[in-house]
Structures are given as structure tokens and as C-alpha cells.
Amino acid sequence: QVQLVESGGGLVQPGGSLRLSCAASGFTFSIYDMMWYRQVPGKERELVAGITSTISTKYADSVKGRFTISRNNGLKRVYLQMNNLNPEDTAVYYCKAAGGLGYARSYWGQGTQVTVSS
């Protein structure tokens, strides 16, 4: 069955870095676009970064220049390198896979908590 398993979250001080990883299985990873979302309690889930099957990337304005999304099709993993973190980056981060016409097929991971605090 389809699985997306995030890892790499944790507690970090402001200005620090974390690298999130999402391991995929159960679908043809290389042809799916991959995204990282985040959510804080009481707010909608927001798109942080995305990378297409053709390695085109996009970022939310709030993370441009600080976060980098990448993928390794051989390992079936997508990564989110997060630098210069600030408390506003505190959230649960989710990995999403989307494919098919109009993203008819999409899958979510269970999320990993990132907390930025001194």
C-alpha cells in the first residue's frame, strides 16, 4: 500500500537548521510531484515547497531563501532543508505526493513536528 513517512523533525533554536525527509513506497515515485505542507493548530494547512517530477521547484514567500526542497528518485525520498529557522516556522510538517490529471491521485504522510524555540 501507499506510504509516506516523514522524519527529521524536532526542537531547534532560532537560527538553527533541520533536514526533513519523506520516504515513499507503494507508488511510482518518479512521476509524482512532491510537496511539503505545514500546519499549526487553528490554521489551514499551507504549502511550503513543491518539486515536480521534472525537478521544477516552488516555495512559499515566507521560506524563500531559507528552505530547499529536493528529491532522490532512486531512494524514493523527498527532502526539505530548512535553514535560519524562526519561531514562526513551528508547525507539523507533512509530505504530500500528487499525480495524475488534475492531481487526481494524492497521498499524505502522518506529519512530523518542528518546534523552533530558545
Would you mind describing this structure in some detail?
The protein is mainly beta and 118 residues long. The protein is 0% helix and 53% strand. The strands form two sheets. Strands 2, 4, 5, 6, 9, 10 and 11 form a seven-stranded mixed β-sheet that branches.
What would a concise description of this structure say?
By secondary structure, the chain is mainly beta.
List SSEs in N-to-C order: EEEEEEEEEEE
Strand content: over 45%
**Main beta sheet strand tally, sense and closure:** 7 strands, mixed
Low-confidence stretches: none
Secondary structure elements and their pairing?
Layout: E1 3-7, E2 10-12, E3 18-25, E4 33-39, E5 46-51, E6 57-59, E7 67-72, E8 77-82, E9 91-99, E10 105-108, E11 112-116
Parallel strand pairs: 2-11
Antiparallel strand pairs: 1-3, 3-8, 4-5, 4-9, 5-6, 7-8, 9-10, 9-11
